[in-house]
Each structure stands twice: as structure tokens, then as C-alpha cells.
């Protein structure tokens, strides 16, 4: 990399993630970044599809690296997930989101890694942070990416049940792209379905996608679940997803993830 040697900065190369030394290097840098508050949350608004007003925000983490600039989560979450660093990162994200909450409209959604959810003490430490920051659980949404099947009675499900009993809402993220099973819906383990943006992307081009999304919305309506369509980039997609019955909408067409300073200006306007 251009600064390799002095300061030991090498570029993040996804091909190198399999390299144990590189992984440990990124892990060490990230651990320091968390302690030194070099992470930052950007907030993307989620809109009500009936009124097209902001109803909530999703917190998305960024790493403000002193040399490399802003690094996207896709570049470091995977590394964090290979150690307990993901737990520290998750705690940092929740604390920051709770601190920012008074300046945001509506609830805030935080992404939680399946690795965090596997810890027996997850729900308890989550609750501790809400208490410590004086945050009402009803203003927090937890987004879980369904990249591994969640079994009934598992540690993961117990954590989710504990959070939901407190009033935290739970969303299945990237629905339709992973392992989500209909039993998730049957067992009422979730409150919100976030339809993966691949369905949104070729919604117009592929009529089968449109049928699937409409059918998911029908089921969700009967079960009184919210359906968020994510990744809306065009007015056409927006119109079609409203028509399909999605209750909420998110995507660059409506609002990009922004740091809180910018967000405030938008809210005040
Ligand atoms: P996600 O939770 O599904 O978040 C949505 C991603 O899509 C975000 O990317 C967002 O910036 C992007 N996006 C939003 N609207 C559009 C659109 O209209 N078009 C396109 N092409 N993209 C759009 P981002 O911020 O890079 O995050 C990527 C993933 O990283 C997230 O996917 C989430 O799984 C993970 N992530 C982000 N923040 C955190 C965090 O604090 N903790 C954990 N564990 N994971 C996180
Ligand atoms: Mg998400
Ligand atoms: Mg995701
Ligand atoms: Mg998603």
C-alpha cells in the first residue's frame, strides 16, 4: 500500500481476508478505532408508504480511518465477526444510536450480527445499555440478517424473545436473500420484514419478483407485520412497491445514509 511501512497502513483487500495475518492486522486496527471513537453512524430515513413522511431511521456504521478515509461496513464487519470484537462494535453502535435518538425522528434501527445474537448474555447487555442511556425500548428496532437458520428454542431465538418482551421490535433484514423460513412468521418471532433489495432492483423487469413481493405483503398484512422495501432507487420502483402493499420504503431515491449533522438539517427543513 502507499503508506506501508511507516504507520503500517495497507489497503483493505477483500481477497486478503482469508489471510490470517491480514485479518489480525485489521482486527487490531479496528479494536483501536472503537476505543478511539473512530467509528461513526450514518442514518438512513425510512418512509411511511401512505404519507411519504419519515417514520424511522436505520443506523449504518462507518469507519473514519485517519489515512484511508471512510470505510464501509462490508469491509470490516466480517473481520469483527471472527472475534469478540463484533460484541464491542455492537455495543458501541447501540450506545451511539441511543445517544443520537433524541435528535432523530421516530425509532432507530440497529443492525445486529448473528454472531452477537449467539451469545447467551446478548439480550441482557443490550438491556443494560438501554437502561444506562435512559432509552425507551419501544424506540429501538433490531435488524437481523437471516444468513443462518434460527431454530426455535435456540440461544438466538431466546435473545430475540427477551428483547421483544421488553418492547424492542425485531426486523428480518434482507428477507428473501438468505435462510428465512416461513416458521419465522408462524412463530411470531419478528415484527418487521425488510425485503431484500435484489427483489426491488428487478421488480419491473421480472414479473415473478412483483408477485413474490405482493404475496409477502399479503401474508404480512394478515399477520400484522410491517414490510419495508429497501434499496428503492427510482420513482417507478417506489410506485410499484407502494402498490404491492409495502408499508414502508427505504432507498437512495428517498434518502441516503447521512451523518447526524446533515440529518438534523433535513429534519428541521
Ligand atoms: P443492510 O442492513 O441491509 O443495510 C442496507 C445497505 O444498503 C446499506 O449499506 C445502505 O447504505 C445500502 N443502501 C440503502 N439504500 C440503497 C439503495 O437505494 N441502493 C443501494 N444500492 N444500496 C442502498 P452499508 O451501509 O454499506 O451497509 C452494508 C451492510 O453492513 C448492512 O446491510 C448491514 O448488514 C451491515 N451493517 C451496517 N452497519 C452495521 C452495524 O452497525 N452492525 C452490523 N453488525 N452490521 C452493520
Ligand atoms: Mg439493515
Ligand atoms: Mg444486512
Ligand atoms: Mg438489508
Give an overview in words.
With 269 residues, this protein is α/β, with parallel strands linked by helices. The chain is built from eleven helices and ten strands. The protein has helices at residues 20-35, 77-80, 85-100, 114-117, 122-133, 155-166, 182-186, 197-201, 207-222, 235-244, 260-268; strands at residues 39-48, 54-65, 69-71, 108-112, 140-145, 169-175, 192-195, 226-229, 248-249, 258-259. An eight-stranded mixed barrel has the order 1-2-4-5-6-7-8-9, surrounded by five helices. It starts with 19 loop residues before the first helix and ends with a helix.
Termini distance? 43 Å
- What's the average pLDDT? 89
Separate helix tally: 11
Query: What is the total tally of β strands?
Result: 10
> What ligands are attached or bound here?
ligand C2E, magnesium ion
| Strand line-up of the largest beta sheet | 1-2-4-5-6-7-8-9
Shape descriptor reads globular
Strand content: 15-25%
Uncertain residue segments? 1-9
Q: Work out the radius of gyration.
A: 19 Å
Largest sheet: 8 strands, mixed, barrel
